Amino acid sequence: MTRGVSNTLAAVIALVAVVGGTAPAWAQGEPIKIGFIYPDSGPMAQLGLDLRDGFQLYWSEVGGKAGGRPVKVLVETKGSCKADEGLTKARKLVERDGVHVLGGIICTPVAYALRSYVIDKKMPFVVMNAGANELTMKLRSPYIFRSSFSNSDGSHALGEWLAKQGYKKIVLVASDFGGSIEHIGGVARTFTEAGGQVIQEIYPPLGAPDFGPYLAQIKPEANAVVTAVFGIDALRFVKQYAEFGLKEKIPLIGKAITTEDMLPAMGDEALGILSVFHYSAALDTPENKRFVEAYRAKFKRIPSGLSDQGYVGAQMIARALDAVKGHIENQDAFLAALRKVEVDAPRGKVKLDAFQNPVHTIYVFRVEKRDGVLQNIPIASYPNTTQFWKWTPEQFMAMPSYLEMKNKWAK
Fold first, then answer.
1. pLDDT-based confidence at residue 306 (cuts at 50, 70, 90)
2. Higher pLDDT, 3 or 115
3. Are 346 and 377 members of one domain?
4. What is the CA radius of gyration of the chain?
5. Rounded to 10 degrees, what is the CA torsion of 256, 262, 268, 274?
6. Structural domain containing residue 387
7. pLDDT tens per residue, range 116-172
8. Which of 77, 145, 194, 380 has CB 3.0 to 4.6 Å from 40, enough for a Cys bridge?
9. What is the C-alpha separation between 168 and 176, in angstroms, rounded?
10. Quick one: which of 229, 215, 225 has its CA closest to 180?
11. d(CA 348, CA 308)
C-alpha cells in the first residue's frame, strides 16, 4: 500500500471516529449474529434437534467465522407448530438481540406467519425445513430463501414414480396441517395425471396418539397407502400400521417417513417401506461420507435429512458472507450473493432457482438392513428437481394450490 493511500485510509477512519464515534461494525470485526428458531419438545422435537445440530456442526468446522468475521448463533426454542409462538421468538431475536439473519423453522404454519414480519423488518430469512410452498412461489420475497425443499417438490417425483411402477389405486394419509397437505397434494397431482386413481383421503390430527381409528378406515382394494406424517407421528404410524396387520397386505410408501432419526425406534417394522426425500445417510458420495463421520463423532448418532438441511443453511449463509467479505451491513450485496450460492452439500449439489428455493436431486429409497443397521437405500433418483416439477412457474402457479385441493383428489 502506498503512503498516499495509507494516509487517505487513516483519514477516513479518523473522520468516521469523529462523526460516528467508532468505525463500522464490519471494520471492527464485530460478530455477525444469526437467529435460529427450532422446536425442542412436542411431535417435531427430534426434527428440530437434528436441524440445530447440522447447523451448528458447520460453524464448528469453520471455527465460527465467515467473511473474516466471527459468527454468533443465537437460538430460540419452542414446543409447537403454532404461528404465534414462532412470531414471538422471531421478534425477540430481531428486535432485542439485533440479529442480522434469521433461520431454522421446522413448521409450515410458522414459516407462513413470519413472512410479513421479515419483509417489514427487511430481515434475511433462511428457512431450513418448513416447505411452505407459497413462500417461494406466489408469496416469494427478496428476503426469503430456503435450504431444504418446498413441500411438494419430492412429492411430484413420487407420484410419477408410483404410476410408472404400476400402482393404480392409492389411499392418501396426511396429518391435518398445511405442510402435510402440501406434501401429499404433490403426490396426488402427478399420480392422477399419469393415470392413477386416489380412492380415499384420510387426515388425522397432528400429534395423534392413536392412528387406530384412521387405519381402520383404509379401503382394502388400495394398491398402496401413501403418507405424509412426520416426526414422532411417523414412528407411531409405522408401528401401528404393522400392528394392524396392514403391512403385509398393502405397501406403505411415504414422504420422508423413515428418516434416520426414527429408523432405530421403528425396528424391523420399517423394512421394505418406500419413501422419497433428498437425503439419506446411506448416499455414497465423498461429501456425505465425510459429513456422516463428522456428525456421528460430534453427536453420537446418524444424521438425518434435517441435519443436512441445517448444514446446508449454514453453508449458504457462509458462502454469501465470504462473497461480501463479511460486510453483511451492505444488505443488498449480501442478498445478491445469497441468491447466487451453490454448494456441494451432503445430499449433492444444491443451487437456488429464481424464486430462491433449492434445485437438487430427489431420491426414492427402500429401507433395507445392511450390516445389521436399517438404512434408506436409494433405488431411483431425479436430478435437478425444482419445486415446479415439469411445469413452468407460470403454469404451476395458475393451478389450484394443494391446500385448496384437500378432499378433492379421491374419486
1. very high
2. 115
3. no
4. 22
5. 0
6. 153-277+361-398
7. 999 999 999 999 999 999 999 999 999 999 999 999 999 999 999 999 999 999 999
8. 77
9. 25
10. 229
11. 10
Burial of 124 (0-12, 13-18, 19+ CB in 10 A): buried
Whether residue 15 lies inside any domain: the answer is: yes
Q: In whole angstroms, give the CA distance from residue 200 to residue 60.
A: 47
B/e letters for 308-346, b = 16+ CB within 10 Å, e = fewer, are bbbbbbbbbbbbbbbbbebbbeebeebbebbeebebebb
Same domain, 12 and 42: no
How many structural domains compose the chain? 3
- Please give the full DSSP string across 173-199, using - where no structure is assigned: EE-SSHHHHHHHHHHHHHHHHTT-EEE
Count of residues in the chain: 411
- Over 80: is that where the pLDDT of 23 sits? no
pLDDT single digits (tens) 314-333: 999 999 999 999 999 999 99
Checking if the pLDDT of 10 tops 50, the result is no
Does residue 43 share a domain with residue 109?
A: yes
Locate 56 and state its grid cell. Answer: 451448528
Q: pTM higher than 0.70, yes or no? A: yes
